[in-house]
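User: Need the bound-state model for iron/sulfur cluster:
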Amino acid sequence: MSLEQFKDRNVGEQNYYQVDIADYPTTGWGKFKRAVDRTFKGELFVGLWVVMREMIKFDIHTVQYPKEKLPIGPRYRAVHEMLRLWESDTERCIGCGLCEKICISDCIRMDTRYDENSRKEVGEYSINLGRCIFCGYCAEVCPELAIVHGPRYENTSEQRAHYVTFEDMLTPIDVMKAGAQKEYPGFGAITPHEDERVQKTPLAY
Amino acid sequence: MKDDLLEIQPLLDKFETTLLLRMMGDTPLVSVENEQLFTVVDFLKNKMDYSLLLDITAVDNLDISHPTSTRFELIYLFRHKEFSRILALKTAVADPDTGVESIVSLYEVADWLEREVWDQYGIVFQNHPTLKRILNHNEFVGHPMRKDYEITKGQYCTQTQDMMDEMKPLLDARGLEMERDELMILNLGPSHPASHGTIRTLVALDGETIRAGASEIGYLHRGFEKSCENHTYNQIIPYTDRLNYCSALMNNIAFAKTVEDMMGITLPDRGIFIRVILTELSRVIDHLVCLAAGLLDMGAQTNYWYLFNPRNNAYDFLSKLTGARLTNSYMRIGGMTHDLYEGWRADLDDVLKKVDSGIAQTLQMIQHNRIYNDRIQNVSPVSAEQAIAYGFTGPNLRASGVAYDLRFDKPYYYYDHFDFDLVVGSQGDTYDRMMVRFEEMLQSMRIITQAADEIPGGEINIADHRIVMPPKTAVYNTIEGMMNQFKLVYEGVKVPKGEYYGAFEAANGELGFYIVSDGSGTPYKVKVRAPSFVHMAAYPKIIENYQVADAIMTLGSLNIIAGEMDR
Ligand code: SF4
Ligand code: SF4
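Assistant: Bound-state model below.
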């Protein structure tokens, strides 16, 4: 199968770009000539020159990690957070179970019960971070904008199956009172231009 | 569609009594009798020029609602030598223990493909040279892809295999004997940086020269295809990230596109343009990794940093856009999760500039470098015929001088409107495989610039909220929005009943998904046509008679990605 055979296929205006390659020498003399050619052309020194150039530039790429951190984007998906309602400071999660259902790695466990006013409330809620793949689906499906991804990406634990519970994730009440809760702009967030409309989380139910 | 039917007319004429024909998307699907399979395949290859065997897989009809004649069916996918046409062949397997005739003698690539089917479904291929397990380990009992095998039943492996059952026939065929010829057995891998993943290749060495080789794969097998069968279509997308993890987004896109084609939906133009930009950026990243790692194997560490730094910039861009650096999970059936952010163009241009300068610096250092050229020129060349027989696709096939690229042969996503060149090599040696990738990156960047210039405004997702999630405001404020949201989560995207094969030009070659749907929100079966799997099958053959150090370079230049190969 030669190149010509393929060339006359109808692929529009485009051209073929053939990787430039000289014929390989087959004779001993040819090989010798090529070796001499390559040796004395001085291209080997290009590499040395590059090293020298970089050395005197002092352009250091290493990030001094714990002291210095790379910025992460606002959409970044790190450990989950649970948000509170702006109006009443109570948690947004209504225990609908969508996040548990969609979770690809089956790492969300929750159960719900009736509280004293016969309203549904979330009892246990935990995410097994040893299994979580940080895909963002839970945040995407949550109808209440309750579960979101926060920016905290440094975690340590004594064992793989490290759980975060509802209380760990929930915005602390003092932060909430100070009005410092942040909305998440990434997976499942409302689109930017709708900000005005959902400035306050609706409480029509 | 009519042309496709015309094309296969000779086949119908010859075997008219046994063939049954229907269309699978725009691919003709022909069913043949079990006994006739070999003759039909022979005819297809020799008389009708279906020279590239893409994939072999099986379907277990145990759970399917419509009545079928047998429990197991085999599907063979062929590509015509002019590349734009595919033909699918289906045969019912009466008894898996008797199975069907092996076609290894016609297509070399069938070797591993048939082994996989046997391993996963337990269908025997008569006269197959070494019908043994490939993805699952050698102590595995049962066949995991059968519908009555429970997904939770993982099995532990406690013993390694010495692989001499594969090595011995190879040595015999070459008239070699371990003792007499003073051969030495050496393991390349599985856990060695030079094996670029967990891949084990057993070689018989005569001095430094490899006389015979056999590969063992499956170290990273995690049952992707089995997992697909109990997740909804959208839930599979994070899994596809982990196929070819060097270009995760591309796998997202390929899968989403296949399902969308199956459902007959097309994205709005803006969505398509975003996909094109991201596909090509992923291709650049993939090639950067391949080349950087290849050069590092050669000791060219400076170049490694010149190629890896811009890759890091590209990942920063992706992280800002999609929320994760590597496992993006950005696509959804019918669109994607976010639109581009403010200021994306400046970031993208910056990435492109850096990639461009990284490539330029690297080429400046290596293009005429004696070590670089002497070490990889004329190493493990694969001729065009061989490459097709091995089932190569993508840059590895183009390096052998075969101008096959789906973006040209069957353009999708407006690829025919972009101005870029098809890169081909001539010898198919390691040098060509690497240089083709260098040039392809430049071509991809041309596409990105054009697409970014022309990107239209408007929606990124289709408007049907039975397929894509409704906006959050609709979920809050309307009952329909809320219902759509719940239905989509609980039932998933409903894909019409049927089967489909979708091909996509991924960084490594033709990435195909063969999907069978039973009409519900969960696929009945998903099979990935993974280019790396096919390339790996050829690897032990093409390193023969080259030295150990050459074999490392060859592995690097084939760009074997274990995640995609082992699935
Ligand atoms: S991010 Fe993904 S894996 Fe993790 S809890 Fe959410 S849905 Fe589950
Ligand atoms: S976090 Fe959201 S999706 Fe999960 S139970 Fe609460 S309200 Fe439902």
